[in-house]
Protein 1
Amino acid sequence: MALTAPQTSGILPFDTPGAWISTIVLMALLQILIYVPLPFLVPKLRTPVKITTYLVANLILLGALPATTIAERSVNAALIATGNMMAMFTLVARKIRMPGADFTATLVYHRWIGRIILALCLFHGLVFLGSPTRSTPNTRTLITANVSFAALLIITTFSHSIFRRRQFELFYYTHFLYVIFVIAAMLHQKLIAIYVLPAMLLYLLDKAYGYYTSYRNTAVVRHVLILPHRVARIKFASATLKYKPGQHLWVQFSAIDRIWHPYSISSYPGEKHITLHIKGLGNYTEKLVKTLEFRQQESANPRDFPMSIDGPYGGSTVNYSEFSHVLFFAGGIGITPLASHLGSLLESAKLKEIRLVWTFQQEDQYEWFSEELVNLHAKFNGKLIIDAYVTRGRPSGDFFLAGRPKIDSIVKGLVREGGWAVGVCGPTTLVREVQQTCHQHSSTKCKFHVHDETFIL
């Protein structure tokens, strides 16, 4: 069948080639980008290269699909946006996923695909509004187009890291506008329903299954302790939750509000209780810490603080248990997911050494995990080596080191026959420096296998 240019008015037929070609090409490319690790690139370039590749594929499709006028080209832009919508929704399914495609790892593609859809829709709309030869759209078509675009614009704007990090609730609630975005888009052009409804059905089934599992995963708070610098340590019990080291949960504290927030698990499998360390950073976590602090002062029963959980999700891309030598870099509260690995790894007969390099601003922040680290160090003396760096003020004893760690010197000094498993979690600057340094010092003699806990929604 010869490809022809799309019509520029009216309802497009369901077999319009631009839509199904875009869907097939982009969905196939997305799977390749998710599963191909690109080990030959510096780690900090791998995700940008994949996103750029996907963006270029959209531009190639826009130029390759048949079109004789700018109006027809703009229709193709809308058809390509339709193809992207299927990919966008499949990436946010938490439970029903392709094997190995972790929910947290694919969120970056979800965000960029949303931005690409916004750009394509903007081009589509501006061309029609500015074309002197366009047919006059009916009122329904015009209204649904504007409503759908407005919803998408709001979602995309408040998905920026500025809002996700500092105003999570704003990001969370505006995302429900996806319902208006999809419905208005389907009313604008019925063709869209054929390509979007299967992905939407998958997403809704995934949400329903998620609610079912969160209902089954009952959680009972056993102990709460407020630690220095607004960190709450919550220990809870769950008879149904099974997790692996380094995973995280979505948690709802209904006494605060009904929003679900993600938190890393800081305990390791086999411990009596599951532990979360939550730092008061934004409005929600500050409110949570203040509430727990008040309850602690009033000696309230921890069991009376309702808690719902969904998960676990995530996990390490490096199997630390396969290595005899492990190196962890943590910045501040970024030690949380790495601490989850320590207990399990130290009990492994294969492990010979874990080196933990933990950087924090003030000396008393060590209390966040002092109890856990002291117990592990005493139990596994010789296996666990801790380098604790204090970046502000002079340390009071010989245990703490002043300033910031010289990562290049540390990694270079650990080059040995075989290799190291490396985990890093903390500020972006720390993650990038560790990735780049380990990449530079890796060779056929000694390979540094790095997993970074970015945990960015």
Protein 2
Amino acid sequence: MKKLVKVAIIAVALSTSFVANARQGQVAAGGGLFVGGNYRMHFGPCVMFQVNITDPIRLEGSFMWSFQKSSVNVWGVNLNAHYLFPMSGTRFTLYPLAGLGWFGYRSDDDVSHHGIYGSINRPGFNVGGGIDLALTQRLILNFEASHKFVFYNNLPNPYFISMGLVYRF
């Protein structure tokens, strides 16, 4: 749990740094819900901070934590890059994503969950894509799907689907 708190503090510090160094209109923050995991389906909240470093390139830091299901939680911290493709004449923007993340799997009991006992935290990388729908000039509906490739032999590579609202500052 101490490691989780440290990772969350670092994520918030990085996102605050992005907000402080960006110009107005280039920063967004929001939250939503995700579903996904590996052998079991998990569900929970997620928060995200975005900054456009150029017109088509956006960086996003995110944190997610699942509600406990059968004594098991999953969580993740990610730093992804998006390459934005605005759809001409529409309010939609498509983007592929790639980035780095830290994935955790925690079990509260001593029963093996597919060969995993206790808590495992591992780095990995993310690939996926998403779509933004501009509801207003500042409010964006976001849908994203990603796959995590975790650097650990016994830990399956999880997938996540998320949906949320983002507010542009």
Protein 3
Amino acid sequence: METVGLKRKNSIWIYLALGSIGVIGQAILLRHDLSDSYPYKLMGQLSDQYAQIGNLGVVIAPALSIATIFIFPSARRFLFPAVATLICPLIFLIVFEYVLWRSPDQGLGRFIPHFDVVTSASVQWLFVKLVVSLSGAGFLLGLVSGGLASLLERWLRK
């Protein structure tokens, strides 16, 4: 009987691993977009700032989103991957917005075209759309993977 309780306590690591895989993948994708892809890479001086945001966010966002799992230990475990993958891109967006808010390029300079009539404001909106779509997709995939892990856990207990 005690081994079943021990197995249930240890099963949290499965959900933690699923959530970790999801948030690390999301963070790497967002960092890649900010550092190595169009239009962020071609924004002149701002491209260095976007790369710094990517390097900062790839560390902070996964760490904080996984930490939320430990803040709510009594929550249903199958929701851990979904919540972590929902929160990670949003934390990345908060880092993005904070760094841009602290930037000296704020104000009307955000609306001056850099190339191809792309402005800092349009790039910012593009990143917001990416974060929202990635957060939604991560939440759905997290629900599916957490639900499948929960079903597998129940099946193995029988």
